[in-house]
From TrEMBL:
Its main location: cytoplasm. It comes from Sagittula stellata (strain ATCC 700073 / DSM 11524 / E-37). Belongs to the carbohydrate kinase PfkB family. Ribokinase subfamily. This is Ribokinase. CDD domains: ribokinase. Catalyzes the phosphorylation of ribose at O-5 in a reaction requiring ATP and magnesium. The resulting D-ribose-5-phosphate can then be used either for sythesis of nucleotides, histidine, and tryptophan, or as a component of the pentose phosphate pathway.
Amino acid sequence: MSSVRRIAGHRIIAKDIIFSDGQMTIFNLGSVNADLFYRLPHLPAAGETLAAAGFTRGLGGKGANMSVAAARAGAHCLHIGAVGADGAWAVERLTEYGVDTRQLREVEEPTGHAIVLLDAEGENSIVIFPGANHALSETHIAEAMGSATSNDIFLFQNETNAQRQAAEQASRLGMKVAYAAAPFSAEATLAVLPLLDVLILNAVEAQQLEQATGRAAESLPVRDVVITLGGDGCRWHNTDAGSVRDLSAPKVTPVDTTGAGDTFTGYLLAGLDRGMPMEQAIGLAQKAGALMVTRYGTADVIPDLKEVQEAFS
């Protein structure tokens, strides 16, 4: 079977992908970026011109990464987002990776992108251009969530506009509302905090949120707060029960941590979507994140469920 759609005049075919409207769905309001990697002998100083030793373009954006991770974990993930006329390749790649792209819109703004400068020691400088990611209309988001039910999950991050409005709609529908508070913004996080069921942060973001609110993770008005701790695993606060669990991560030798947190989030939500208890879903997500850091790249190298299971069997 093949599904066919057109964007910017391009014919996009996703082979052997069938999306059933009857199954539970993760609705992900998220960014879609082109990640442009330039390898340099060193990071440029002000006014300096350097020749790049290498260049690659990959699919990225925190939203796209999470959608790919959720899809590769076996969930039906519908991505709500936008690209420009130059973004047909990104839509096609998302579709190939199993993401439901029927709610990706083409807008006048160019597709978002990140310029990543990498030196020989692995240090980097990154410039992000939001582009189409900040051109979503509330009407589009409302239409995209028109088929959502209380059995579904709504996921979002900080790389699009209309976050509060979308979270309010999801909450009214009775959906489980999950938020990865990255890139961190205290203002954006405080605006949606009362609407959340699941909050996912890294250790730095958790500290920044505590400074902004004066409240530690265990006292936030969110049932489940998950704080990722890199190679040390993660900390899960269940505020209803007043419990906290430190969960260790598999030990691996990392080569590139880019996208590992997004992989963790996508797998975590996919596990919850399948009915896993939180601790089991976290365990699966940590395995996926651990495998991800052994690879170079972002969305294009996120492991699928079979790879994760085989790596840690």
